[in-house]
Amino acid sequence: MSFWNEILEGLRISWSAIKANQMRSVLTTLGVVIGIVTVTMMATAINGLNAAFLRSMSILGTDVVYVERFGWFMGEGEWRKSRNRPEITLAQAREVERQATLAKAIAPTIMARENIVFERRSGGMVTIIGTTDQSLITGGMDMSEGRFLSAADVAGARPICVVGNDVAERMFPRDTPVGKRLRVGDMTFEVVGTVAKRGRFLGLFSLDDVVFIPVTAMAGQMVSRPDVRLDVKVASLAQLDDAKEELEGIMRKVRRIPPGGKNDFAINQQDAFIQNFNKVGGTVAAVGLFITGLSLFVGGIGIMNIMFVSVTERTREIGVRRALGAKRRTILIQFLIESVLLCLMGGVIALVICAPMTLLVAMALPAALSPGIIALALGVAMVTGIISGFMPAWRAAHMAPVDALRSE
Q1: Separation of CA 2 from chain center
Q2: DSSP, residue by residue, 142-167
Q3: How far apart (Å, rounded) are the C-alpha atoms in residues 188 and 129?
Q4: What percent of the chain is helix, strand and coil (3-state, nearest 5)?
Q5: What ranges in 314-361 are assigned the alpha helix state H?
Q6: Among 170, 293, 323, 401, whose CB has the most other CB atoms within 10 angstroms?
Q7: Which of 9, 37, 13 is nearest to 29 (CA)?
């Protein structure tokens, strides 16, 4: 008998054995079902997190750096040493703009939280961003209506603003926001445009629940001691390192840091987020792998036990087949196939359970039950079946035909 004929015969006999003990077969797969659900949902969640993270990183831009007073991921001890750093002033930001040669655009930015009101409708607290016309370039934003801030608006500290998509929909649900007067804190601004929808950053906060105003208006009237952040888009990605060195040199000069003195500012970029995300992602994956392995171990033990029971119950059948010339390999394959079929049944049941669960996850993350995840789940189920069924199958294959035939 050829190898493929042995496979087909093993499938037929194994399926008949599973159908003959349907309830036992279903109950046996429960441990595997739990393990495969864990594998599938973990993979789905990690894929969703990765997709959300990559989308957020695309907002930061690979060719944009941020000059700020503090680093993004400073430890508590480092932050305590750095908390007395002087603010970056608007005058210093202007000097950097004047001297930088490797930057395509530089946008001084000040941020605050203020309440907004239109007529009698309150929009609650939103993020107010004081910036310049260059922010449209550094932020990679598009306009859905009207225009963005202009250089003249910034130079004259004009009382105009640009609203994010969420603010526009909440404050002006049935009308265009352009031309309306929006109260921001204690000041009133005329809306001149709406930024196209941008989504959420890392799934944590909305990038559309914002109001942009001229940085000069914010520094002069809304914030008493502004701490400016410089959003710098470099002219070329190949010049990123050179641009960072240039910015560091200019900042040290305008902040009068002596030679050998420690920087009292930080130059941040998306690499910091990527490194920290990879650390967190690695920890999550390790914990998930442990939980998954534990679940599959328990499920595999259940499969192994039931396969030993099956071998014991069918000892006489094994003796008859061996007496009629069946090879040890044929018996081994038969019971391995039965074990794998049991685990694959558990995998299919698990995927049916995971389908609605994935829809729930997709409400928070861009998750989907992709073909890759389905293949992973079924592959894990198959490997579990092979490992769990090997010892019982080996025992069955190495039974002495005479002893097996004597079994009652």
Answers
A1: 49
A2: -EEEE----HHHHHTT-SEEEE-HHH
A3: 15
A4: 60, 15, 25
A5: 315-323, 328-361
A6: 170
A7: 37
Q: How far apart are CA 33 and CA 303, in angstroms?
A: 12
Q: Which residue has 């908390």 as its token pair?
A: 83
10 Å CB burial of residue 137 (0-12, 13-18, 19+) is middle
Taking only the tens place, the pLDDT of each residue in 305-362 is: 888 888 787 777 777 777 777 778 888 888 888 888 888 888 888 888 888 888 887 7
Question: Apex CA 173: angle with CA 170 and CA 176, to 5°?
Answer: 110
**pTM more than 0.70:** no
Distance of CA 51 to the CA centre of its chain: 5
Q: What is the DSSP letter of 293?
A: H
Phi, psi of 355 (to 5 degrees): -55, -55
User: Residue 102's Cα: distance from chain center in Å?
Assistant: 32
- The least confident of 123-137, 191-205, 371-385 is 191-205
Contacts with 344 (C-beta within 8 Å, 6 or more apart), sequence order? 378, 381, 382, 385
